[in-house]
Structure formats: structure tokens, C-alpha cells
Design brief:
By secondary structure, the chain is an alpha/beta fold. The protein has helices at about 25-30, 35-60, 75-95, 95-100, 115-130, 145-160, 165-170, 220-230; strands spanning about 20, 60-70, 105-110, 135-145, 185, 205-210. It has one domain: Undecaprenyl pyrophosphate synthetase (3-Layer(aba) Sandwich). Strands 3-4-2-1-5-6 form a six-stranded parallel β-sheet, sandwiched between helices. Bound molecules: 3-methylbut-3-enyl trihydrogen diphosphate (2 copies) and magnesium ion. Magnesium ion binds near residues 24 and 188.
């Protein structure tokens, strides 16, 4: 169990322990090339491989990727079906590679709307990689920050809770196995959270880039980490209170 940034001050390291990314801009990448939007999603899978490798090389411990939001069901049905097929084929074709790279795969989100085949594959992939001790790769699929908090609260109510403590809530959030993200990245130029990890982003460093997700790569990841290193993470304190190694003046 990791501490919360509001109940204790987390240790700040030069390399972020947890990087969380909104992979945005696939549709625009395709549009610029006069291709159907789905071509951008396909290309985006290649970026996922590169960024996973980049995180392993940097020594990042947790990488969380936003693949499909609770609001993405509002998209045209053909696009949703394509994304589901892509997710299924990734679960079928990528897990061997992840496993041989010692990566532990986790999928967070509401699985109730997925086809049974996808749910089975998710379980199988999680079980297969559960004992791996390398990078923890989390895919957020049919995930919403509000869903996550409400789900945790409803669970507590069902358990008979009268009041809710931060620790009790944290324990029931879908990412209770990970520390809060140190670094949040969003590609594609938009500067918003779009219902990603609302609770956990309280003290994350935010990084936005205009690069579209299919154009993002290890090098761009390194630039984001360089920017992260220049940040002064105060967690509410005055700059003068920080150890000199963490001051950025
Ligand atoms: C992100 O790219 C992928 C998903 C949301 C599944 P988009 O599909 O949102 O691409 P843009 O924002 O339309 O360019
Ligand atoms: C956020 O991107 C969700 C994912 C990348 C999975 P969107 O493209 O759905 O976000 P909005 O609609 O522009 O806020
Ligand atoms: Mg988008």
C-alpha cells in the first residue's frame, strides 16, 4: 500500500516512479494523411510499444495508459467496434512480448460493457503476467475517474461504512496497487484531464505536448521526463522548507 500525497509527503526521485498518459490525437494524425481515423489508432499501438520500452530503459516502475474512456462509447459505432477489435488483438498478440520482458499487465475500468471474449483475455493476460517483477503496465479501458471514485464509495457503503477515510477509499480505488502518478502526460495538444485519474492526479506534475500520439516516441518521453526533473514539487510547503537537492531556484 502506497501513501497518499495528501496524508504524507511522497519521496521525490529524479525518475518518475509512475507515469500516466492520455494517448490523444490518433484521429487527427489520420485526418492529416487523408486516412480513416482508425488508421491513427492502429499506428498508435506502435507508439505504445516504443513508450513501454522507453519506460523500462528509464527505470519507470508504473506506466498507465488511457486507452478508452467511459465517454468514448459516444463515438460512432464503427470506431468503437474497431477499438474493441484492436484491444482484443493486442491482448492476443502482445502479451507474449510483455511477459518475456517481465512486465506485469493490469487493466482498470468497468468491464461490464465489454464482450465476454475481451473480459476472458484480460483475466488471462493479468494472471499470466501477475508474478512479473518489472514494469507494471496498466491499461485504462472503459475507465473514468468519476466511475472509479463512485465505485469505491459504493463498495464502502455496501460494506456498511458510515464515514469514509482517505485510506479506506484509496484501498478500493482501481489503482490501489500503485503510487499516485508523478508525471502526467497528454499528447495531442488539448490541456484537459478528460475524466482520467481524478483522485490520484492531486499532486502530479502535468505535461502537455502538441505531438499527436502516433508521432510520440521514446525521445519525446525523455523530453517529458527532463521537464519533470526541472519541476519543484512542494506538496503545499514553502520552497525554503525543501532539502536543497529538491529546490529548483
Ligand atoms: C485517442 O485519439 C484515442 C482514443 C480516445 C481511443 P483520438 O481518437 O481521441 O484522436 P483525436 O483526438 O480525435 O485526434
Ligand atoms: C481522452 O481522449 C480519452 C483517451 C485518450 C482514451 P478524448 O479524445 O476522448 O478526450 P476529449 O473528448 O477530447 O476530452
Ligand atoms: Mg481525442
Amino acid at each position: 500500500m502506497f501513501g497518499s500525497s495528501t496524508s504524507s509527503i511522497p519521496e521525490v526521485r529524479p525518475v518518475p516512479r509512475h507515469v500516466a498518459i492520455i494517448m490523444d490525437g490518433n484521429g487527427r494524425w489520420a485526418k492529416k494523411r487523408f486516412l480513416p481515423r482508425v488508421a491513427g489508432h492502429k499506428k498508435g499501438l506502435g507508439t505504445v510499444r516504443d513508450v513501454v520500452a522507453g519506460c523500462q530503459e528509464l527505470g519507470v516502475e508504473f506506466l498507465t495508459l488511457f486507452a478508452f474512456s467511459t465517454e468514448n462509447w459516444r463515438r460512432p459505432q464503427e470506431e468503437v467496434s474497431f477499438l474493441m477489435d484492436l484491444f482484443l488483438s493486442a491482448l492476443e498478440n502482445e502479451v507474449d512480448r510483455l511477459h518475456s520482458n517481465n512486465i506485469r499487465l493490469k487493466v482498470i475500468g468497468d468491464r461490464s460493457r465489454f464482450a465476454p471474449r475481451i473480459v476472458e483475455r484480460i483475466k488471462a493476460a493479468e494472471q499470466r503476467t501477475a508474478a512479473n517483477a518489472g514494469l507494471v503496465l496498466t491499461i485504462a479501458a472503459d475507465y473514468g475517474g468519476r466511475w472509479d471514485v463512485l465505485h469505491a464509495v459504493n463498495q464502502l457503503i455496501a460494506e456498511g461504512a458510515q464515514t469514509i477515510s482517505e485510506d479506506a477509499l484509496l484501498d478500493r480505488l482501481s489503482m490501489s496497487y500503485a503510487p499516485e502518478p508523478d508525471l502526467f502526460i497528454r499528447t495531442g495538444g488539448e490541456q484537459r484531464i478528460s475524466n482520467f485519474l481524478l483522485w490520484q492526479l492531486a499532486y502530479s506534475e502535468l505535461y502537455f505536448t502538441d505531438l499527436l500520439w502516433p508521432d510520440f516516441d521514446k525521445r519525446a518521453l525523455n523530453e517529458a521526463v527532463q521537464s519533470y526533473r526541472r519541476r519543484e514539487r512542494r506538496f503545499g510547503r514553502a520552497s525554503e522548507q525543501l532539502p536543497s537537492s529538491l529546490r529548483r531556484d
